[in-house]
Amino acid sequence: MMAASDVTRPSRQVLYVDDDAASRYLLGRVLENEGFVVTLAAGVREGLELLRRHRFSLVISDYRMPDGTGTWMLKQAASAGLLEGTEVLLFTGSTHVEGAAGLKVVSKEHGTDHIVAQVLKLLGPLHPSHQEDPPSRNTRPLVHQAGAMARIELVLYTAGRSPASMRALRQMKNLLAQYESAQVDFKVFDLAEGRPASAEEDHILLTPTLVQRSPPPRTWVVGDLEDTTLVADLLDHSGVERKQ
Predict the structure, then answer these.
(1) 53 vs 227: CA distance, rounded Å
(2) Angle at alpha carbon of residue 87, lines to 84 and 90, rounded to 5°
(3) Of the candidates 160, 154, 142, 158, which has an alpha carbon nearest to the alpha carbon of residue 232?
(4) Could you please report the per-residue DSSP string of 209-224?
(5) Beta-strand runs (E) in 42-128
(6) Comparing 147-161, 173-187, 213-227, which segment has the lowest mean pLDDT?
(7) Which residue has the higher pLDDT, 20 or 43?
(8) Which CATH number is correct for 13-129, 1.20.120.450, 2.60.40.2470, 3.40.1160.10, 3.40.50.2300?
(9) How much helix, strand and coil, in percent to the nearest 5, is found in the chain?
(10) Which of 3, 30, 98, 218 has fewest C-beta within 10 Å?
C-alpha cells in the first residue's frame, strides 16, 4: 500500500469505512472479487487515520457511525488535503443524510450490484475483457423445490437481471445438474420484485447471496458464485448424492 507522500495514486486501492462488521466483510469480499485492493475501517477515527497514512483511489463510507458521520469524516479529510484526486461514495441505509452536498450517495437497499456498478463507473473494470455480454432474455431463474426427501435448503437472493445475479443463477444451474434434484430444495428470490420476509430472517444486505437455511448452521455465500467449490462442499457435507 502506498504512503501519503507518494505521488502516484493507486488505481485499485479502495478504503471502505463502516461500523457494521457484516457489511465490511461482505462488500469487501465482493470488491476484492472485482480486482480491487480493499482496506477496511470500523469507524470515523480509524478511517481518518488511514487516510492520513495512505492514498486511495476511492473512499466508500457509511453515513452514521458511533464515533461520527461519514460526511464529517470526508469533510475533515478534504480540508486536510487528503482526498485530492480521490473519488468518494457515501454508502448508507439512512433515509436522511445531512451534509452530503456534492457527494455521491448510494443506498444500501439497492444491493451489491448497484454499488459495484458505481465503483466500476468511477474506476473502470480490471480488464475490458472481464466484462460479460448482456444476459439472454431467454434465461429463466432456476427454481427447484423438493419435498420431504430434501437434504438441504438453499435460497439464492438476486437483484433483477444484473450481470452478477445472472452469473450466480447460471452457476447454480450448472452445479445442481450434477446432484440428485429430489434431495435439494432450491429457491430464488428476486429482490427487484419485492423483499420477502425470509430476506430479513437471512440478514440479506448484498446481492447476489446464497443462503443455506438448513441443515444448520445457516451459511452465507456472497457474490456471483464464479467459484462453486464452497457450495459443492455444502451439498456434499449435507449428504446430497451426486448423479451417477
Answers:
(1) 35
(2) 125
(3) 154
(4) EEEEEESSSPEEEES-
(5) 58-61, 64-65, 68-69, 87-92, 104-107
(6) 147-161
(7) 43
(8) 3.40.50.2300
(9) 35, 25, 40
(10) 3
